[in-house]
UniProtKB/TrEMBL annotation:
Family according to the record: Belongs to the AOR/FOR family.
Known cofactor(s): [4Fe-4S] cluster
Residue ranges annotated for the Aldehyde ferredoxin oxidoreductase N-terminal domain, each copy included: 6-209
Pfam families per the UniProt record, alphabetical: AFOR_C, AFOR_N
GO molecular function, one term: 4 iron, 4 sulfur cluster binding
Protein name in UniProt: Aldehyde ferredoxin oxidoreductase N-terminal domain-containing protein
Keywords: 4Fe-4S, Iron, Iron-sulfur, Metal-binding
Amino acid sequence: MLKYGYGGRVLRIDLTERRFRIEPLDSSWIRPVIGGRAANTKRLFEELTPDCDPLGPDNILIFGIGPLTGSLLPASAYYTVTAKSPLTGILGDSAAGGQFGAEMKLTGFDQIILTGKAGSLLYLMVTESGVEFVDCPECKGKTIIETTETIRKEKKDYSIQVAAIGPAGENLVLFSSIVSSGNRVNGRAGMGAVMGSKNLKALAVRGALSLEVADPLVFLSEVEKIEKAISSHNEYQKRYKMGTTMLMKDLNNIGILPTKHFQEGVCKYVDEISGQKLAKNYKVKNKACFNCHLPCSRYYVVDDHEAEGPEFETLCSFTSRLGSRNLPFALEMNAYLNQMGLDSISTGEVIGWIIECQEKELIHP
């Protein structure tokens, strides 16, 4: 039996038959790969039929966490979602932070493996005891936050963590995302479309188990060293203030900020769309992932929109990358795309490509 960081169990869910089984995580199997991303990749390689339809019932969708997820170690809150990508036809892999991974750890499952396709729209309620299959026709078309709220109200438990798809995933948009904690996004490779193809609106987790550490005092000592190293870093305050949006000016200063669909590397109006401008005019407060002492995510308010983020990629995708100096528009797009369950990077690329094609008269409106 695995101990110390691992839950030691794998949860397999057959959506077609509405059945699940719990099996032990083989220590000899996990030892060579250690973490959640590598374990997911190994599992997919071993069990997936390579030529399966990514949007068919034979594709495998895996939620995985590593041994440090849910521990006191800073920046260890991530979980990874893996499947054959409907966008690329090869390995699909996307990670997110927030609170979901830590709550999954408390269920005692290191991997949740989903196969088949449900006959109708449902969500899964996973606890340390297993799975409840819950039909949810009322969630069809709902946003991420609306879905999360519906599940928590129904279960009368606001500590439940929910990873859900929006309307984009339901409609099998190839670059649709999975979103947990309301705004923490598994954006890349179309994992939301895979989830939608299985008629799975959400995966909800609520755990009551504990996480064991082999030598708590030694581990705590190492954690404290890492926390001090992070807090004393000369870019800590900058990251605290702006998160990844600090990269707007940093990349512009060295001539590699994507501008006008990558046709240029310097944006002359970067001060109007920078992380500094966002923090000064729109930021309300900071937010951290589970147990992280660097709360680099931010809540903001613009017009009638309240949302979390954006990260650098989204801010850049809807400002300089499109040739736009409209910061409020970028913030509104961040809120909209996250709640629809659309990957902001791919969405921004589609729009940027169309704009460039129109400018070069390759296509016409």
